[in-house]
């Protein structure tokens, strides 16, 4: 009888997702759902693994990969893969996959919800009632910013950026976008207008970051970028925290160079309650939940497992990076 290939999963997943693959592979899994696997244990477990299922919380660098003499695939449960040394993996003949498409609409839902929550000061309003401060109605009580017929500037017009643009179109918004390449379909179907980065900053009422984290985009939103935004502008980030200089963002908000910010991602995650941005009323912070619907997270997990199955069976992965 042939020995089953071995898979290591770096976070506890529901048995309903894992069970169909147990008959195909020997599966080992970190026992905690809420805590990342310790690095020393990860290095120990990958030594005998043929496939690795990981999350953004795991840094799969050259040290980890060099311990994994049997490893054929790293399946990352995310669209981004800046936690993986892809070049080192390629040199070692290890395939790297991600989970695009399946989380596009869910993440776009969250991005637009974050935009609306920030613009209309919903978190402040909820806290206002909970603190028993609501005594009277007044004309400008917790008055926020309109969303309809405003200008949205989307930086990064990939799958998620395009899905956000579709939602913006339903609100009658003017859509500007900046991307490495033009997006003819978005221009034709959504009337999106291509613009350079500075134009996006200067003309948009809402600037939304949906760009991957690379050497070129690291801290792309810096002091100069925030100075170019409208004083009434609102900044939304659902991409990666590393594309923002958080100190510059904090200063821009305190100095009222921009009106507000809605953030689902941060430079170093998780953030703690003493983080400077959490001290500001005009900032909405979420714990990196862009794709966090039950349906989408389960589909992401299945895609990772399908990629592993394909590669370990000598087939092409469904979503190689």
From TrEMBL:
InterPro entries: D-isomer_2-hydroxyacid_DH, D-isomer_2_OHA_DH_cat_dom, D-isomer_DH_CS, D-isomer_DH_CS1, D-isomer_DH_NAD-bd, NAD(P)-bd_dom_sf. SUPFAM superfamilies: Formate/glycerate dehydrogenase catalytic domain-like, NAD(P)-binding Rossmann-fold domains. It comes from the Bacteria. The keyword Zinc does not apply. Residues 112-290 form the D-isomer specific 2-hydroxyacid dehydrogenase NAD-binding domain. One of its GO terms (cellular component) is cytosol. Residues 7-321 form the D-isomer specific 2-hydroxyacid dehydrogenase catalytic domain. Signal peptide: none annotated. Keywords: Oxidoreductase. GO terms for molecular function: glyoxylate reductase (NADPH) activity; hydroxypyruvate reductase [NAD(P)H] activity; NAD binding. Belongs to the D-isomer specific 2-hydroxyacid dehydrogenase family. This is D-glycerate dehydrogenase. It comes from Lentibacillus populi.
């Amino acid at each position: 009888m042939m020995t089953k290939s071995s898979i290591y999963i770096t976070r506890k997943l529901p048995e309903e997702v894992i069970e169909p693959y147990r008959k195909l592979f020997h599966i080992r899994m970190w026992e905690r759902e809420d805590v990342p696997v310790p690095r020393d244990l990860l290095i120990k477990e990958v030594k005998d693994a043929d496939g690795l299922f990981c999350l953004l919380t795991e840094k799969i660098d050259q040290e980890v990969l060099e311990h994994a003499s049997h490893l054929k695939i790293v399946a990352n449960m995310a669209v981004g893969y800046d936690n993986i040394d892809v070049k080192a993996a390629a040199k070692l003949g290890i395939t790297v996959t991600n989970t695009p498409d399946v989380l596009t609409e869910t993440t776009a839902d969250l991005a637009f919800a974050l935009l609306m929550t920030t613009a209309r000061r919903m978190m402040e309003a909820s806290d206002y009632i909970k603190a028993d401060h609501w005594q009277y109605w007044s004309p400008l009580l917790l008055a926020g910013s309109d969303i309809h017929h405003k200008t949205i500037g989307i930086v990064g017009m990939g799958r998620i950026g395009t899905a956000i643009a579709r939602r913006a179109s339903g609100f009658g918004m003017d859509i500007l976008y900046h991307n490495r390449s033009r997006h003819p379909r978005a221009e034709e179907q959504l009337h999106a207008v291509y613009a350079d980065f500075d134009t996006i900053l200067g003309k948009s009422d809402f600037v939304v970051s949906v760009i991957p984290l690379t050497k070129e985009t690291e801290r792309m939103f810096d002091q100069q970028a925030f100075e170019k935004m409208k004083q009434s502008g609102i900044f939304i980030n659902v991409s990666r925290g590393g594309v923002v200089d958080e100190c510059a963002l904090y200063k821009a908000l305190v100095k009222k160079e921009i009106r507000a910010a809605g953030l689902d991602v941060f430079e170093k995650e998780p953030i703690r309650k003493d983080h400077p941005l959490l001290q500001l009323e005009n900032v909405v912070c979420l714990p990196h939940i862009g794709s966090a619907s039950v349906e989408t997270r389960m589909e992401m997990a299945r895609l990772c497992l399908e990629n592993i199955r394909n590669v370990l069976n000598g087939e092409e992965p469904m979503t190689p990076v």
